[in-house]
Hints:
The chain has 354 residues and is α/β, with parallel strands linked by helices. Helices cover 35% and strands 13% of the residues. Bound molecules: pyridoxal-5'-phosphate (PLP).
Amino acid sequence: MRAWEKNFRKVEPYIPGEQPQFENMVKLNTNENPYPPSAKVAKELEELSRQTEKFRLYPDFKSRVLVDALALHYGLSSDQVFVGVGSDDVLSVAFLTFFNSEKPILFPDITYSFYDVWAKVYGIPYKCPALDEEFRIRREDYYGENGGIVIANPNAPTSIAEGLDFIEDILKHNRESVVVVDEAYVDFGAASALPLLGKYENLLIVQTFSKSRSMAGARIGYAMGHPSLIKAMNDVKYSINSYTMNYPALRLSVAAIEDDAYFRECCDRIIGTRERTRKVLCRLGFTCLESSANFLFATHGSVPAKKIFAALKERGIFVRYFEKPRIDNFLRITIGTDEQMEKLERALVDILGQ
Ligand SMILES: *Cc1c(COP(=O)(O)O)cnc(C)c1O
């Protein structure tokens, strides 16, 4: 070991889903949206291509155009909105800002696998109460003392959503720590905690443009909460890197937010495809958890998930498989277009010999 290496920060990094680059592949492994962003985004990009002189200047470090557009869209004031480079950035800033207690923060044993990575890199103590037998969050596990709470709703990779009463119950039992609700998938059929914002000053809601708004490549996420939470996050963010949101991302994200009709149409289409796909999978011998997201979490009655995962991959169809306790016989399948799901069905019929 070189002398200086003992001073390195040692971390076990988060491993994102594969980003394979094959022609004609069916990519159902990272929950991206199969549809392009709004035509208004394309139009804005064209305009931007004629204004390259704008790149000369630093962007507005307050990202005001986007903050204001989101505030208007959700009926909030601008000091209730924080923006970041994807919700991964937003969540990372939230962990760094709010979780400085000696008491452990709490999040489920099966959830977004980035949470424990942030906890470790920032030295935050944490505990992971187990989901119940049905992969549901046990609310009582979140009643005790803690340094903060993080709940993904809908949860990932289970796809299961809890209702507003569930989130409010957790808030009622936690008046002394920040409760972060990660709503990356909320637009696919779950209830947002937004109506609770006026009542609970310790609630932070995190959402993203990556899934329901088809803009994973632009890296845009946001948080909504009491102005005191948002200010604290901005203070931390400006202490690390103030110019995080690039100029094109700001312009394009505003264009996307303004096209609500297209956004709703895409979400509805994905929900429709999800329900058709669920029936197909059931017919093929799978059991799917009840999904409120743009993916299904499915296990087969007789064929191991790992085997199906590999066989699909051979056929150019990528889904997600987690080699983790309790979920190592499940596949997480992103909802693509109807055509992509038909390809999946044909491959599964072939693999399962039906
Ligand atoms: C995808 C995802 C995110 C992060 O998305 P970004 O692309 O960084 O906005 C956060 N939380 C959950 C639960 C996710 O599935």
